[in-house]
Design a protein that fits this description.
The chain has 337 residues and is of the alpha/beta class. The protein is 53% helix and 17% strand. It is built from 12 helices and 12 strands. The chain is elongated and about 60 Å long. The N terminus is likely disordered.
Length: 337
Amino acid sequence: MARVQTGVRAVGAVLVAVLGVSLAGCSSTGGKRAEDARKAASAQGKAAVSTPEWTFGMVTHSGDGDTFWDIVQEGAEEAARKDNIKFLYSHNAEAQQQAQLVDSYIDKKVDGIIVSLAKPDAMKGALARAKKAGIPVITVNSGSAESKEFGALTHIGQDETIAGEAVGEELNKRGKKKALCILHEQGNVGHEQRCEGAKKTFDGTMQNLYVTGTNMPDVQSSIEARLQSDKSVDSVVTLGAPFADTAVKAADSAGSKAEVDTFDLNEKVAAGLKDGTLGFAVDQQPYLQGYEAVDLLWLYKYNDDVLGGGKPVLTGPQIVTKGQAAKLEEYAKRGTR
């Protein structure tokens, strides 16, 4: 009798094992089919979800031709296609104009708003009006300290002070003694935080240099003049990728051997890292900022989800150097890094 029971148990175990393999195979196949379906839908510009077509609007402090914000926009648009979102994008370098753009989205009764807070005081009223209208808001890139106070669900970006501190530490590793921090937009709280963070951890001397970021010839001449007057400067830190190449030209014209480093990444910066023209870059992953902002608004509308637990959702900083340049250059060319 014992032998019969043992045999039954053995047969049962074999059946369970076989069924397990079979079910696992079905699950694996089903998962692959689902993934293939999502990829096919995305390739055809179709949504991967069947939720209502909500409308989200994004307002940023980008100036014309700023490649950083092109990458943010690309990430947001990719997430919007996936999430069945009608995505609206607008930008203006002037804070009062940004507030008016937010008001225009409120008038259109959009379902969600994404906004950067480079000059938060000018945006406080607009965000209050969005909240009163019942429109959820997520902040990106700038304004992490004010985001919660202004009623946003969460903030997505890098902590600018922490990013600055990472720069100071990297300059120490490279043996630098005197640096310039190039601020291209006066009044931008994030830029001030970056330079202050770098000064905090840098063992050498760091000086701020304010330039007119909308005028590249002025940027170049200002950096060149400072480098000509002070040959002891051995590092120039720009706060945006479009200014790195200009800083390199300024250093060449001034006959300076100062290393040029930069915040943010684009195709030119990746190429500069690769050929050694630039020392390092601080990547805050702008594609991720745009993508996650849309995704998190969708999750809030669909499932009342909020990430961050009252704290910013960090996308950086990541220090990138020549070793990662080849792969990053590939991604930068497709517009995602």
